[in-house]
Fold:
Amino acid sequence: MSITPILQFGTSRFLQAHADLFLSEAMPGTRPVTVVQTSGDPSRTKRLHALAEGYEVHVRGIEDGQQVDRATRVDSIARGLTFAPDMAEITRIVAEEAQVILSNTADAGFKPRAEDTGPTLDPAMSYPAKLAHLLRARFEAGGKAPQIMPTELVQDNGTVLKGLVLEVAQRMDARYRDWLAEEVIWVNSLVDRIVSEPLEPAGAVAEPYALWAIEDGPGVSAPCDHPSVQVVSDLGLIERKKLFVLNLGHTWLVSRWLEEGRSPDFVREVMADPDRTAALRGLYEQEVRPGFEAAGETGGLDDYISITLDRFANPFLDHRIADIAQNHGEKLRRRIGAFVDWARARGDTSPKPRLEAALKGEDA
Structure:
């Protein structure tokens, strides 16, 4: 078996249509990834084998204003392992091969578990605890510290993961803890792509838009050269565009949807109505743009708004407005309320009647 410099924890359809696809396109013919299934779910064994055989991602949506529907074959995965039975081999790969450790372990992946206090590696441990024990093998082998690249949707995900790993490592040797804190490269990143459905036994359907934004820092490098992979000096600029354009737009559409009697069902149906689309464009231009102008953050804003409108209009995506409406009050505060506060704090005095009406639950 060839050496694989990238060890990936998680077999999700998101990773299949995101990082694994980028690596396949950027490094054809190399198969640099070993994938580890951490859940132990026997129903996923078939998927694990299929990943190593290669699979397809169907990209469907609107790109540069044009409808696209294309299939891409992904051949970046060399082998698939299951954590419990393959624990010794996974430990060896961490000790000898891995230069990058990539993860997407779902919402529960970072949550501590009772087993985390155990003295030895246990398949029942949380991902941070597993990592604390696995990286010890690398340290004891005298290998160069790897780059840890979580893609979980947690703000400052690399910093958060580092803290969780160090917490577990408090029961370990001080020299090892220093190595974890000072030598290992913990990378913050932001990822974005809607992966709407799985294919069987492996593969997925995804929208054209994709982003893997990696925060620059000492020793940080992108795992591949790909248009969707960006190393940036400040993730905050990207986070604000996502929160205050994409997420804000979704939440404003929900407010309109509630006012209009909970119709239509899907975001794409809203965008098929010229009047509703014009209203959203007007919101972005007249109420959102001035906030970014006041903050001096208009670089790339027009392109991002255009891409966002294309994403909302994706005719292949059944994105239910009722799903976006869950926890609507909290989303109003975090997306629209936070934007208005942020814009005002930066000197934006322009009127924002539609956003303020949404916050009050009034007719926009």
